[in-house]
Design brief:
The protein is mainly alpha-helical. The chain has helices at about 5-15, 30-40, 50-60, 70-75, and strands at about 65-70, 85. The longest helix has 13 residues, at about 5-15. It holds the Pfam family PIN.
């Protein structure tokens, strides 16, 4: 296990408790929407299902951009109507 992992986990929990993260419920409708969006992606885009769910959540909640260092999410963001911003 990485030595900094416990520290990162504590920071994550504190950030969550302080309301830094906006948690969205995942229901059947959201999963269906994410799957539909994945089926419409260009065949040259690679996107993991969890990343598609992340992008779908952002798009469905009206976000304009997604901030990430994940190159696959950045490439797929426009297909979800989002601006991909590199961290």
């Amino acid at each position: 296990m990485r030595r900094d992992l416990p520290c990162c986990a504590i920071s994550f929990e504190l950030d969550s408790a302080q309301g830094l993260w906006q948690w969205q419920p995942v229901d059947e409708a959201l999963l269906t929407t994410a799957a539909k969006r994945m089926r419409t992606l260009s065949s040259n885009l690679f996107l993991r299902s969890a990343d598609a769910l992340h992008l779908t959540c952002a798009a469905e909640k009206g976000f304009l951009a997604i901030h990430t260092s994940d190159r696959h999410m950045l490439a797929a963001a426009p297909a979800f109507g989002l601006l991909g911003v590199t961290l």
